[in-house]
Please model this.
Amino acid sequence: MARPLIALLTDFGTADHYVGAMKGVVLTICPDASLVDISHDVPPHDVMTGALELAACYRYFPPGTVFLVIVDPGVGSARCGLAAEAGEYRFVAPDNGVLTAVFAETKPKRIVQLTERRYARATVSRTFEGRDRFAPAAAWLAKGVDCSALGRPAPQIHQLRIPVPEAAGAALTGEIVRVDRFGNLVSNVDRRTFEAFRHSAPIRIEAGGHEIERLVGTYAEIEPGAVAALFGSTEHLEIACNGASAAARLELRRGDPIRVSRSARDEVPPR
Model:
């Protein structure tokens, strides 16, 4: 039988003891667990980035994986903790919208609030619930406890407003939703929406007022120092600069607009 797998995603970084303490709690409860770090470099308190990072990777994990997601600016507040089942996976996270993007793709089968105290540590710190409430819940799920045992059903949960691209006339408008470590500007325009809008017509791409002259297939097709558009590994339109940060080069950030428009037939389209 495969060992239970818990994948961690947090904004804790690795300079402090926080991630290590959570892993210690998990392994005390479920010594057979394998622990995988998705990332601990989500910008502090950035729930939106946490939601998008989780959605970008969860489906590549084996069925049965438990995701322990702690990006929690509301720690110690009245917000609830959640355990959920969606598809073939289980999730433990604060009720602050960090599961929104996953649930938009995979409808949850069950969501409960973490109200059953026997599945938390005896003393719960109001400043470190990741260690005392969430990590134990994830460990007990990995150990075989049913999700419903962790607490009462959640009547409703908090949802983020994740922007979606909008097509109107000859323009498809989206926005930058994520800037990755390389400075690539990842938009919310997915390939399917792009192709449905394009209908094989020549197109123009603008990012924050900058015209992007080329649409390429890979980063290697971009000349050194040049900027171009392409579809990255998440199948979303992104703006990249070969050997440099597109975000720095164009002085753009999350929330800035992306615009795709059908151009006249005699204009030179992005390639």
